[in-house]
Amino acid sequence: MKLGTCYYPEHWPEAWWVDDARRMAETGLSQVRIGEFAWSRIEPEPGRFDWGWLDRAIDTLHAAGLEVILGTPTATPPKWLVDRMPDMVAIDAQGRPRGFGSRRHYCFSHAGYRAEAVRITRAVAERYGQHPAVVAWQTDNEYGCHDTVLSFSKAAAAGFRQWLAQRYGTVAALNAAWGNVFWSMDYGAFDEVDLPNLTVTEANPAHWLAFRRYSSDQVAAFNRAQVEVLREFSPGRDVVHNYMGFFTEFDHHAVAADLDVVGWDSYPLGFLDTFRFSEADKLAYARQGHPDIAAFHHDLYRGCTPGGRWSVLEQQPGPVNWARHNPAPLPGMVRLWTLEAMAHGAELVSYFRWRQFPQAQEQHHAGLLRPDNQPAPGLAEARQAADDIAALGPVGAPPKSVALVFAYDADWVTGIQPQGAGLSALWAAFDCYSALRELGLDIDIVPPGTALDGYALCVIPCLPIVPDALVDELKCFPGQIVIGPRTGSRTANFAIPEGLPPGALFPAKVARVESLRPGLEHGGAGWAIARWLEHLETAAEPELVADDGTVASWRHGNRRYLGAWPDRALALTLLGRAAADAGLATHRLPEGLRLRRAGSRLFALNYAAQVVDLPATVTGTALLGGPRLAPGGVTVLDEG
Ligand code: GAL
Question: Is 0.90 surpassed by the pTM of this model?
Answer without folding.
Answer: yes
